[in-house]
Amino acid sequence: MKITIIYDNTVYNRALKADWGFSCLVEVENTPKMLFDTGANGAILLSNMKNLNIDPLSIEEIFISHSHYDHTGGLSEFLNVNNNINLYVPPIFKGCYSAKEVTSLSRPTAIHNNIYSTGELDNIEQSLIISTDRGLVLIVGCSHPKMSHILDTASQYGQIYAIIGGMHGFKDFDLFKDMELICPTHCTEFIKEIKSLYPDAYTEGGAGRIIEL
Ligand SMILES: [Zn+2]
Ligand SMILES: [Zn+2]
To answer: How far is CA 16 from CA 6, 12, 23, 48, 108, in A?
Structure first.
């Protein structure tokens, strides 16, 4: 599987634009291409996609982690380009959308064979779980629910070995001791601390970062 960070507070690839927000493309074999969140600004989302050679028309699904503008701001502009989309949202998300189909996920749910949602946790946010041969890969928007709650919920599907995304306010660093890949990006405040505690697992984020697992 492959994860491409399209939108982030920082850039990994200088051809792209940095902006506060998060979005990544999730590509799993034999599964529709899925966009995780849409950043804050549709124009930046689409231009970063173009620079990464990602065709918006090749995307069939969008997973929205939570309602904050820096994750949903690009959605309506994306749907203007391609609305042939299955949209997965937490129930708290009450945006206006023109997607083909909208599914609201209030509890842990299998979206595909190897792809799950934690469902909306703590009434604010859902996280995406991809099951691989090496364990679970967890993608988080801002981690507004308690990290222990996110990890416990995801763990029902197996052992978590990678976490990627925004970890707002997270400092229960012990929770990550068994992770093999940690990519704290977007709104993560304690990136330096995570990097110095787990130098081998630490992976730099930023728009343009491609993580193949
Ligand atoms: Zn947020
Ligand atoms: Zn955010």
So the answer is: 8, 8, 13, 5, 34
What is the phi/psi pair of residue 198, to 5°?
Answer: -130, 65
Output the pLDDT for position 95. Answer: 77
Ligand 2 center to 37 CA (angstroms) = 10
Using an 8 Å Cβ cutoff, are 137 and 35 in contact? Answer: no
Question: 103-132 burial string, b = 16+ CB within 10 Å, else e?
Answer: eebeebeebeebbbbbbbbeebbbbbbbbe
Please count the structural domains in the chain. Answer: 1
β-strands 101-104, 210-212: how paired?
A: unpaired
Q: Which residues constitute the domain of residue 102?
A: 2-212
Q: How much distance in Å is there from the Cα of 132 to the middle of ligand 2?
A: 26
4-34 pLDDT, tens digit per residue, is 999 999 999 999 999 999 999 999 999 999 9
Q: Record the pTM.
A: 0.97
Q: Could you tell me which of 146, 193, 142, 139 has the C-alpha nearest to residue 161?
A: 139
Q: How far is the CA of 33 from the centre of ligand 2 (A)?
A: 22
pLDDT tens digits for range 36-95: 999 999 999 999 999 999 999 999 999 999 999 999 999 999 999 999 999 999 999 987
Q: Which token pair is 37?
A: 């969140």
Q: What is the pLDDT of residue 153?
A: 98
* Cα 40 to averaged position of ligand 2 atoms, centre (Å): 9
Distance from Cα 141 to the centre of ligand 1, integer Å:
7
